[in-house]
Specification:
The protein has about 300 residues and is mainly β. Helices cover about 10% and strands about 60% of the residues. The chain has one domain: Lipocalin, CATH 2.40.128.130. The strands form 2 sheets. Strands 1-3-4-7-8-9-10-13-14-17-18-19 form a 12-stranded antiparallel barrel. The protein has a 4-stranded antiparallel beta sheet with strand order 11-12-15-16, with helices on one face. The protein starts with a helix and ends with a strand. The relative contact order is 0.18.
Length: about 300
């Protein structure tokens, strides 16, 4: 009987050790990367080539209610969740270079991650700033008669955000990220239009990943986005969209940690111009599937735009 009790105790300790290790690896991978704090996540009419000299000031508030954490190549950790509150300030300037419409933009995200749980184990709340986003864009092809515009965009994220290697959740990630994006905006008549975007995001190494001296590496993330837009009148539009993300598998000290980026998301958006220079927009979204991270059951993005 004593041997049986010892074995049961040892088995329980081993289970707890494995679960604790799994929790640590998962937590190390859970750097917040929600949209629109990721600048590559587009909203409808994002690729409209505005006149040179135009400036846009935009403010975003994004909320996310996240549930079960599903490990890549592993189980779904029930009793998981995360509440995200993120604000983003964005500035866009349109210009012309060598006869091509072009420009640059800057994003800065900040906010908090609250009520985080993985497998029933609570994680501390965190607040701070995300890595700044520096971006430049150019339209190699614009055809106003066919309402066609093709755009190329580059993004750079230096490691400027808040980061603590001993914290399980961070808004910054202590690594350089770069993204290349191509997009198409196509109009059909006076009301209907289509936006399509593809991007690939590349990651530098995080040499101070949890628990302090670990090396975190991540594969390339790919994203496909579409919006089908209907402009009811010059002031009001509604849109339905889809985002698919895949790739981005992570390794901590060379070992797969169960985190990657695999999301299938449905999106709905409406926008209204109070005057030609002032617009408000609201997006609601839901993850149909998510692997290698939290599933966002409900997301909302509010945006205000001012042109000058």
């Amino acid at each position: 009987m004593k041997n049986l009790l010892n074995r049961a105790t040892s088995s329980k300790r081993l289970h707890n050790l494995r679960f604790g290790l799994c929790l640590s690896l998962v937590a190390a991978a859970t750097g917040f990367q929600s949209d629109p704090a990721q600048a590559q996540e587009i909203m409808p009419y994002e690729f409209t080539p505005l006149p040179a000299g135009t400036n846009l000031a935009l403010g975003y508030y994004a909320y996310g209610h996240n549930t079960d954490y599903r490990l890549a190549r592993g189980p779904t950790l029930r009793g998981s969740g995360l509440e995200t509150h993120v604000g983003v300030a964005r500035f866009v300037h349109y210009d012309e270079i060598a006869g091509f419409r072009a420009g640059y933009q800057i994003y800065q995200g900040f906010g908090g991650l609250q009520d985080a749980r993985i497998g029933g184990q609570r994680l501390p709340n965190t607040f701070g700033a995300q890595n700044i986003t520096l971006s430049a864009f150019l339209w190699p092809y614009i055809n106003e008669s066919s309402k066609t515009a093709i755009i190329l965009v580059g993004f750079l994220n230096p490691p400027t955000g808040s980061y603590d290697p001993f914290a399980p959740l961070n808004l910054g990630d202590n690594r350089v990220r770069g993204t290349v994006q191509g997009g198409l905006q196509q109009g059909f008549g006076n009301h209907l239009s289509l936006d399509i975007a593809y991007d690939a995001q590349f990651y530098g190494d995080n040499d101070r990943a949890f628990p302090g001296t670990s090396l975190l590496r991540q594969g390339t993330t790919h994203r496909l986005q579409t919006w089908l837009n209907w402009r009811w009148n010059p002031s009001f539009n509604t849109s339905i969209g889809y985002t698919g993300i895949w790739g981005g598998e992570q390794r901590l000290n060379g070992v797969l940690n169960g985190a990657r980026t695999e999301i299938q998301r449905i999106r709905f958006q409406t926008g209204y111009f109070f005057d030609p220079t002032l617009q408000v927009a609201l997006e609601l979204n839901h993850d149909l599937q998510a692997t290698g991270g939290f599933k966002q059951d409900f997301g909302a993005v509010f945006r205000i735009l001012k042109a000058f």
